[in-house]
């Protein structure tokens, strides 16, 4: 274990959602900090968020991704917590004034996962089979390729959605592979959907550590947990969303890969029923991820993304 300095800190508190996956993520960061700084005490502050409470509404109808982070940011603002740990796919692209993402960690598997007790993959599902997903992005891409399926919303934490599958509410569900693997539920995955089949959400599989902008001591504390390659990819992906309107809940996928100092970025915007999909691919320098994301967004607009978003009433 390292005897690195704790930047003058003796104790830090991490705000987290109460779900088992969120607690795993916060515990993971806690363990990493304790290994780096053996003399640092790390506490968790579990909180219930609006997104966790609104289980019957889709995220788009309930108010979007910010529902999972606002209570955690309130704890940071009040001083009840020092850090907050988020799934990057749940973090709005525009943070409130006074907050920063101090670190983006190494990415877990970014793909979507097909889970079923009867079927080995999407292609095996019969016409009319009910598939559950909490994501407009996943629903749109699946509907485009398999229009005969009945796609229904499936909200709740990972265990809740698996329980609904097991009691027969759905023939299959699609979840983030990262969450299943982190919870030790990787054996439930029947197939991982490759990125050309289901483009992931921006930031999917990566964790973000947030703090107040003036807390440079905290930013220095968590800096060793940052993964430069994951961060530059996530920044490019989030820039696509930012250029298309920021925090709006739209069926948008973005995924970047870093190779030899170059970023390759895929992005899409889809109508919720999958009837229209705009796609873009571009490459650029890793040193300018936001520029690449903006370029991908412009290509999407040229290929019909503006019309798709206008039909959603998004105004982007």
What does it look like?
With 316 residues, the protein is α/β, with parallel strands linked by helices. The protein folds into 3 domains: 11-107 and 206-226, D-Maltodextrin-Binding Protein, domain 2 (3-Layer(aba) Sandwich), CATH 3.40.190; 112-193, D-Maltodextrin-Binding Protein, domain 2, CATH 3.40.190.10; 235-311, Double Stranded RNA Binding Domain, CATH 3.30.160. The chain is 33% helix and 24% strand. It has 11 helices and 13 strands. The chain has helices at 20-36, 50-53, 59-62, 70-78, 136-145, 158-166, 177-182, 216-222, 228-243, 289-302, 305-311; strands at residues 11-17, 41-47, 83-87, 99-104, 112-115, 130-133, 150-153, 172-176, 191-193, 207-212, 252-259, 262-270, 277-285. Strands 2-1-3-10-4 form a 5-stranded mixed β-sheet, with helices on both faces. A 5-stranded mixed β-sheet has the order 7-6-8-5-9, with helices on both faces. Helix 5 (136-145) links the parallel strand 6 and strand 7. Helix 9 packs parallel to helix 10. The longest helix is centred in the first third of the chain and has 17 residues, at 20-36. The termini are far apart. The model is unreliable at 57-63 (pLDDT under 50).
């Amino acid at each position: 274990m390292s005897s690195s300095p704790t930047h003058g800190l003796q104790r830090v508190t991490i705000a987290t959602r109460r779900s088992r996956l969120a607690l795993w993520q916060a515990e993971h960061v806690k363990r990493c900090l304790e290994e780096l700084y053996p003399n640092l005490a790390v506490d968790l502050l579990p909180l219930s968020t609006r997104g966790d409470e609104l289980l019957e509404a889709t995220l788009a109808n309930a108010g979007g991704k910010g529902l999972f982070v606002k209570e955690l940011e309130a704890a940071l603002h009040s001083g009840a917590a020092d850090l907050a740990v988020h799934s990057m796919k749940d973090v709005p692209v525009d943070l409130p004034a006074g907050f920063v993402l101090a670190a983006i960690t190494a990415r877990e598997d970014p793909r979507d996962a097909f889970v079923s007790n009867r079927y080995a993959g999407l292609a095996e599902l019969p016409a009319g089979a009910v598939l559950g997903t909490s994501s407009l992005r996943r629903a749109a891409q699946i509907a485009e390729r398999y229009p005969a399926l009945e796609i229904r919303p499936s909200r709740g934490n990972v265990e809740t959605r698996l329980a609904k599958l097991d009691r027969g509410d759905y023939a299959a569900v699609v979840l983030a592979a990262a969450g299943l693997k982190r919870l030790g539920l990787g054996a439930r995955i029947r197939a991982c959907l490759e990125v050309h089949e289901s483009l992931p959400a921006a930031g999917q599989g990566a964790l973000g550590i947030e703090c107040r902008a003036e807390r440079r001591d905290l930013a220095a504390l968590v800096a060793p947990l940052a993964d430069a390659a994951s961060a530059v990819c996530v920044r490019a992906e989030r820039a696509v969303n930012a250029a298309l309107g920021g925090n709006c809940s739209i069926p948008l996928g973005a995924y970047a890969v870093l190779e030899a100092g170059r970023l390759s970025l895929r992005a899409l915007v889809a109508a919720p029923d999958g009837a229209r999909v705009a796609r873009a691919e571009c490459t650029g320098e890793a040193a300018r991820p936001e520029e690449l994301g903006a370029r991908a967004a412009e290509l999407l607009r040229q290929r019909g993304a503006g019309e798709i978003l206008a039909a959603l009433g998004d105004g982007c």
